[in-house]
Amino acid sequence: MEYAVDINHLTKFYGKHRGIKDISLQVEKGDIFGFLGPNGAGKSTTIRSMLGFLRYQEGSIRLLGMDASTQHRDLMRRVGYMPSEPFFYPDMKVKDVISFAAGAQGKDCKKMSHRMCEMFEVEQEKRIRELSLGNRKKVSIVCAMQHEPELLILDEPTSGLDPLMQDAFFHLLLEYKEKGTTCFLSSHVLSEVKRYCQNAAIIREGELIRVDSVENLSRSRVRRVRVWKNGKEEHFSWYQSAQELIHKLEEEKVDDVLIEEPSLDELFSAYYEKGTEK
């Protein structure tokens, strides 16, 4: 099978400092794939390696069946990239930035860019330096998606956007998915991943902790337990069997107990914590 993203044993160190180590993952064509991890985990290093912005020591990366290192120029015409913090020439007008990005792809994107500017309420006559972070993110979305690429690599795309614009963004992303576009989505917003991604990878301290379907990642034996005894409240997470929990509660002679499933945030945070089993 030819994957949209095929990364094998990718390793990148910055001198003696940790970057990423032995990263291997595959993304099927047409998938919206979540890439999760805390700050400093290695998400940006992985993405920059995929885009050819960094030279890595070991491993291989193929995007859309092409070698990301040796076929970089041709590949970038088929890829759309949105960084987490967009930077443009501050004195350029928005319309000129969008036109410049389209020209770099060698395509006439006027019809799609016009539609996207209306959808995201982009003020094209303003200069970049006049825009808030949220409005710069809108411009970045247009620049990344106007040429209707086969693969989108998006780093925290909705940060800085208000809820209405976030909804508009995912509406467009799902529209692209229906046309066959693949999306590699780095995000801290776990509800987004749960709602829109079919599969996801979790990275921690430069190493992959788990790659699985979002449905399987959301399943867990972990339970949040709150107990009351001697007038005091305690709470903890429980990873063992229900029978062992009952035995523990009987031994401690609790007055009352509340057992709940963890929230999605708590569940994924458990993967982020050092020492959590893979």
Plain-language structure description:
The protein is an alpha/beta fold. The chain has a domain at 223-261. Helix content is 34%, strand content 29%. The protein contains ten helices and 13 strands. It has a six-stranded mixed β-sheet with strand order 6-7-8-3-9-10, with helices on both faces. Strands 2-1-4-5 form a four-stranded antiparallel β-sheet, with helices on one face. Helix 3 runs parallel beside helix 5 (133-145). The longest helix has 16 residues, at 163-178.
Keywords:
4-stranded antiparallel β-sheet; 6-stranded mixed β-sheet; 10 helices; alpha/beta; 29% strand; 278 residues
Biggest sheet character? 6 strands, mixed
In whole angstroms, how far apart are the ends? 27 Å
As a percent range, the share of strand residues is: 25-35%
Structural class: alpha/beta
Order of helix and strand elements from N to C terminus = EEEHEEHEHHHEHEHEEHEEHEH
What portion of residues is helical?
25-40%
Rounded mean pLDDT score: 89
Number of helices: 10
Q: What is the spatial order of strands in the main beta sheet?
A: 6-7-8-3-9-10
Number of strands: 13
Radius of gyration: 22 Å
Low confidence ranges: none
Shape: globular
Quick structural gist:
With 278 residues, the protein is α/β, with parallel strands linked by helices. It has helices spanning 43-50, 72-76, 94-105, 110-119, 133-145, 163-178, 190-196, 214-217, 242-252, 264-272, and strands spanning 5-14, 17-27, 32-36, 58-63, 66-67, 79-82, 151-155, 182-186, 199-204, 207-213, 223-229, 232-238, 256-260.
